[in-house]
Amino acid sequence: MEQLPLFLTDKPESKEAYRRIIAETADAVAASFEDSTAYSGPTPQELKELIKVKDILPESGLGWQAVLERLKKQILPNFLRTPSTDYMAHLHSPATIESIASELVLSTFNQSMDSWDQSPVATEIEVEVIKMLCSLYGFKPENGADGVFTSGGSQSNQTAIILARDWFCNTKLNYDVKKHGLPENFRKLRMYTSEISHFSMEKSAHILGLGYESVVKVPVDKQKRMDTAALAALIEEDVKNGNIPFLVVATIGTTDFGSIDQVSEIAPLCSKYGMWLHADAAYGSGVILSQKYKQRIADLELCDSITVDFHKMFLLPISSSAVLVKDGKTFDALTIHADYLNRTEDEEDGYTNLVDKSLQTTRRFDALKVWVAFQTRGKDGWSEIISTSMENAAYLYEKLLNDGDFTVVTKPEISSVVFRLKGGDEINKKVRRKLIHGHGVVIGQTVSDGFVCLKFTLLNPLITHDKLDSLVELIRKLGKTDV
Ligand SMILES: *Cc1c(COP(=O)(O)O)cnc(C)c1O
User: pTM for the complete prediction?
Assistant: First the structure.
C-alpha cells in the first residue's frame, strides 16, 4: 500500500501526491454525475444498509485508493446533486465552479481568521470584502460601518441580536450586560418579528437568556409581509404594560415565501421607540445584484444590521454568511482579550484580530469565495443570475394562477413559489415523495394557512420555462394516478 505524504510542502513528491489526489477526486466526482436528476432515489433504510459503523475506523489504514473506491461506490452516487435543475426544495444552492476551486485554496492553506498571525492576507481580504459589502447595502464604512463573516444566517442573526441587546442595555438602561449579565427586569425585554420569520429568532432569544416569551410574533398581511400597523399596536401595548421593546427583526425574504417586510415603514417606529432594527436578509440579500429588481431591497440602509447569506442566492459553497453593522463600535459586545491571541497592542500597531467581532474563535476564510465569485462574473454576470431566478418565479406564478388544478399562495417577490394541487393534503404529500424516490426530483413542502403546500425554490438559473412546464405536468399526472 502506498505511503501517502501527510501534507503539501515544497518537496516534489508531496506536490505530485497533492495534484494526483485532487485530480482523482475531481474525476470521481465528475463521473458521478451520471444523469441530470437530483437524486438517485434510495430510501433512508437503503442508505443505512450501505454504511457500516464497524468500517469507519479500521485497525490499519486502507490507504487512499481503497477509500476512494468506497467513496465512489457508497457515497458519490447517492449524493443529492444540488446543481441539478430537478432540485428546488430549499434555500440550498448549487455552488459555482470557481467557488469550489476557492474551497480548495482555503482548505489547503487552512487559515484561521481569529488572529492576524494565523491569516495575514486572509484577514486583510476579509476586511476589504466587508467594506465592499457594507457599501453595497448602503452602509458607510467611512462612518464606522463594519461586519464579520459567520457560519450562516442563524449565527449572523444571533450576533445581531446580541449586539442589539447589549447596545440597548448600555445606552438606554445604562446597564452593562457584558459585565453583569442580564438586568433585573430582563423578563420585560421584547423583540418583534413576523409570525413567519426564521426560527433562529426564538433560538437566539433562548440562548441569550431572554426566552421565547421575549419574542413577539407580529401577524403578516395577505402578501406574507409583517403587518406594520399590527407591529405599531403591539409595541404601543407593550410599552403601556411596562414591557421594554428593544429590537425589531424585519425579514427580507421569508424562508418559505420570499416575502419582504417593509423596512421603510418599520424604521420610523424603531426610531420613535429607540429600538434597533435588524434585517434578516439571509434569503433576500442576493436581490441587490439584480439590476432589474434591486429596488425591492433598497431600504436596507435604514437598518442597524443586516444578515447576508452567500450560500443561498449567491450560489457559494456552505458555509458563507456575513453580518453587517451600521455602527461597528457595537461589536465591542464580543471583544475579549487573551494574552496568547489578540493583544491590545496589536491593534495599535495595525494588526487586525477579527476574533474581536466574532462568536467563533477558529474560523474559515469564507470571504475568499466572495472575492473570487464577484470578480469572476462581475456585476453583469451576477445580475443575470439573480434576475433569471426571479423571472422564473414570476413565470411559474402566472402559469399556476391560470391553471384550474392548482392554487397558488402568494405572488413571489423573490424566487420561491408556494402552491398546492387541489384535492387535499395527502395528495400533495404523496406527490412530493413520489418525485424524490421515483423521478429524482426534489421539491419543497410546507404549510400555509393550514394547508399542506408544495414549494419550488428557484435559486438555480439553469432552470428554464420548459423545465417548469414539464414539472408542473408531472405533478399533475402524479396527483391523478392513485398510488
Ligand atoms: C436560511 C435562513 C436563515 C438561516 O440561515 P442559515 O445560513 O441556514 O443558518 C435565517 N433566516 C432566513 C430568512 C433564512 O431563509
Answer: 0.97
